Amino acid sequence: MEPIQEYEDETSLELPTEPMRLNMGPAHPAMHGTVRMILDLDGETVQNVDVQPGYLHRGFEKSCERGTWAQVYPYVDRLNYVSPMLNNVGFSLAVEKLLGVEVPERCQIYRVILGELARITDHLTCNGAMAMELGAFTPFLWCIKVRDWIWDILEQETGARMTHSFGRIGGMALPPTDKLKESVRNILPQIDKVLGETEATLVRNRIFIDRLQNVGVLPKDVAISMGVTGPMLRASGIDYDVRKAHPYSGYDTYDFEIPIGHDGDTYDRFMVRMEEVRQSCRILEQAVERMPDEGPINIDDPRIILPPKEAVYSTIEATIAHFKIVMEGIKPPVGAVYSYTEGGNGELGYYIVSDGSGTPYRVRCRPPCFINLKAVEDMIRSNMIADIVPIFGSVNMIGGECDR
Amino acid sequence: MSKKVLARLQARFGDKILAAESFCGDEEALVAPTDWLEVAQFLRDDPECAMNHFVDITAADYPEREPALPRFDILVMARSLAKKTRIRVKTRVRDGETLESLTPVWLGANWTEREVYDLYGVTFRNHPDLRRILMYEEFVGHPLRKDYPIEKTQPLIPYRDVGPSKLQPFGVEEGNPFGRIDWLARMAGRNLQVSPAIAVQQGQRPALSVDVEDLAAPHKQLPSRDET
């Protein structure tokens, strides 16, 4: 028998094809629980995608209008719930901007310490989850182990591991414990060790590089026009960090750098987050060094801060002040203000409108990952389905913040 | 630092900038809805302003301003990457009026305008894809408006009927009120405060403590919260 010499040239066959519509639904292990993507697929390649967020929309902005200004903190906690301290601090700063007050220096350093701890947990969770979705299950657990130790510190300070509601307008809920400095100093080498292990496993790994490099490239001009901020923007090569550009809480006195990527692909986003954890550790070292052991945490204004409990039980002035703040709420002046801080995902802004009564009139949270999520549509198009997983993981879409 | 941007806007547009305000470190300009797109394009293209980094588009609802002033405040916030300045431009739109979409100016306007449409009902002309983003398509109404009651639910699958004892509504004296201000009553002209402290202050209801002599007297009738 002769071997078959002629092979059918597949490109000459004209088979009618049409794109397949696939629903990567909200309940999907890689969709971080709350985003639905409707994909038009040509084989494995995504031709078109419709990203549909909103499955975790809980109506925060409306719920904030039903209480007092201090009752907004539990809502604000549950926005970016992997770094809740950053949301707390952001909202405190917004109302303090409207009131025109500044907290004492010890409180600013305390806010920086808790905020950077929260930022480390955010980045570790994002990177660990992204690695896990690519198949590297162990680095995820290493990151979660360290995250748990950080949560232990936060529990020791605030009383809760995740949604602390610890910020207050004009200060914090409680002063720092005695063990804060020691705990933070003990955890810094642990974070370093885990980062080293994770990087040793992943960063030069052939499979990791093949799956992440040149995948999901976000060009600079698209990123800027879309309003992308945070590690996504920095991975595309633009050095915008709210802590450096518009410093708050004394960030201009700390010595740290902003890591910047150069391709804007998923690998760069992963590496930017890794390096940011290192820079956050640097800030923590400096903050713990300079934090005084004594001094006021809250500003000394009875219209804003609740008086100490002993005074409330013994003097009438403190009772009246306490009653007015709790029942009527803090009364910022009439007006509107937009205040911005660096959240885990980028510029977390609060546009708050006050009508002079103790009830907030409008609390708008500018959600960084909602605006970053729009960029995902462009990044996914003309990539394959398997690329959706690391691209989406590198965006760090936190459902609570995206949908509020 | 962003005051230069305000000055530049006023120099270029003159009277079309209806108000320019600097409050608590924020600079805000008020324009009419017809100049919305032009001002945004100027902010992005002018080399002095160079507002290329989009920040946010949002809205706020002031139903009590009507009919003198439009009820919705639409705000766009942008910043300049190079110069680190920020600006906030505001316009006022009535219910039913449309506003030009800013998607040709900044790509980020796409989803933020969809959110304003979804939650407030403000329609944007020439938006490539104006549909609901956070709420589901079958939802009726625009939830962030002040006259949308916060306790209203629109379940796609109706709730089971478990009898009156387990469900709301609570009476005026029962339970915690859902909100401190009853917006539906307020928009009908009766400023009924649900918060007891403010209601007592404004004389809408008697103080909750009862004098010893009144214990024998029949209960005073509290004002009822009727549905309008």
Tell me briefly what this model is.
The complex is a heterodimer of chains A (404) and B (228). Chain A is mainly α. Helix content of chain A is 48%, strand content 12%.
Care to describe what's here?
- The complex is a heterodimer of chains A (404) and B (228).
- By secondary structure, chain A is mostly helical.
- Chain A is 48% helix and 12% strand.
- Chain A has two domains: 10-52, no CATH class; 60-403, Cytochrome-c3 Hydrogenase, chain B, CATH 1.10.645.
- In chain A, the strands form three sheets. A three-stranded antiparallel β-sheet of chain A has the order 1-2-3.
- Chain A is globular.
- The termini of chain B are far apart.
- Chain B has a five-stranded mixed β-sheet with strand order 1-2-5-4-3, with helices on one face. Chain B has a two-stranded parallel ribbon with strand order 6-7.
- The radius of gyration of chain B is 23 Å and the shape is globular.
- With 228 residues, chain B is α/β, with parallel strands linked by helices.
- Chain B is built from five helices and seven strands.
- At the A-B interface, helix 1, helix 8, strand 6, strand 7 and strand 8 of A face strand 3, helix 3 and helix 5 of B.
Please count the beta strands of chain B (DSSP E, at least 2 residues each). Answer: 7
Counting H and I runs of at least 4 residues, what is the number of helices of chain A? Answer: 16
Rg of chain A from C-alpha positions? 24 Å
Question: Which band does the percent of strand residues of chain A land in?
Answer: 5-15%
**Secondary-structure-derived class of chain A:** mainly alpha
The CATH class designation of the largest domain in chain A is Mainly Alpha
**Uncertain ranges of chain B:** none
What's the CATH H-level superfamily name of the largest domain in chain A? Cytochrome-c3 Hydrogenase, chain B
